[in-house]
Design goal:
This protein is α+β, with helices and mostly antiparallel strands. It has two helices and four strands; from the N terminus they run βαβαββ.
Length: about 100
């Protein structure tokens, strides 16, 4: 059965200011925003708190030499966590929220 929250899109300079969405209510988060380190880290840290345990946090442009900020942000966000990160050949990444 699909959740009532089928999609939620946000973009722009203030996309990290989130209102009206319940914590732990999102099944799948996909981040493909500004690719510099600070923006990527902020987007992942801000939005991932809305993903339910077992839900998927994912994004694009990891290990992409043009967008090194994504790789560094994901590594720093998950540093010290026992979290398996999955990768695909098209620079996609994902992990399960805990």
């Amino acid at each position: 059965m699909l959740s009532k929250n089928i999609s939620f899109c946000c973009y722009g300079k203030n996309s990290w200011k989130i209102t009206g969405l319940d914590l732990k209510s999102v099944d799948l988060l996909f981040v493909d925003g500004d690719h510099d380190y600070n923006a990527t880290f902020r987007d992942l840290a801000s939005w991932s708190r809305f993903v339910r345990p077992g839900g998927i946090i994912s994004g694009h442009d990891i290990f992409n030499p043009v967008n090194d900020g994504v790789t560094d942000a994901v590594e720093d966000l998950l540093r010290g966590r026992d979290t398996a990160v999955n990768f695909a050949t098209d620079h996609m990444y994902w992990w399960h929220a805990s």
